[in-house]
Design brief:
The protein is α/β, with parallel strands linked by helices. Helix content is 39%, strand content 23%.
Amino acid sequence: MDIEIMKTAEVVNKYERLLSEKPRFHAIYGNGKVLESNACNWGIGRGVLDWFMDNLDSNAKTLETGCGYSTVTFLMLGTEHVVVSPYKEEHDAIREWCNRNQIATEHAQFVAEGSQEVIPLLQNGPQLDLVLVDGDHSFPVPFLDWYHTANRVKKGGHVIIDDTHLVTGTILREFLKAERGRWSLVRELGRTAVFRKETEDSVLGVWWGAQPFCIERKRGVVRRARRKLGRLLVHPDDVLWWD
């Protein structure tokens, strides 16, 4: 018991060091080349990292798209972790900081490729306790990240959608919020939404008529007219009057 308390205290100390030191893991890129290493930090909010600290332990199996402070937190908690993001330089920076602070990285798999290419190949891996979708936010990548990991998340496990202020994050959050019997919203932590999986059945291949999000998107005449007017005022060249 005393050893476990010491381990917990050690993890907390390293966690506070991460937050106070604010290391920069992300580079600036141009034309596929690194223009400046360790230039910035696109770190996820502290509230989300605190949630990880409160809800995960070394028995958890986790996967994330993107990398940063979340990666370090998973590593210091000792989860069996997979991180998928395209930039090896950022993975190296994370490992270097972890090595300096006596945080083991051997239990993690770093995959330096685009998630849209890699995630479909990982579908036969172990069941997951948590998936963090926080990689490429361009359409349709977040949806692919969710789609190709959703059935690997165990019942009671979690999917976390970051950057829900962006349109792709907004759509994915609203889709999952509308689900009934498959996903439930646990918390919204700023621009991050935490969902719990509520079923052992497949959540893929569901008929659109059984997806509340799709049904709710059927607009009445008044709502369609208001939407057209708004688009006309903002982007008049983009309005398609027949859609």
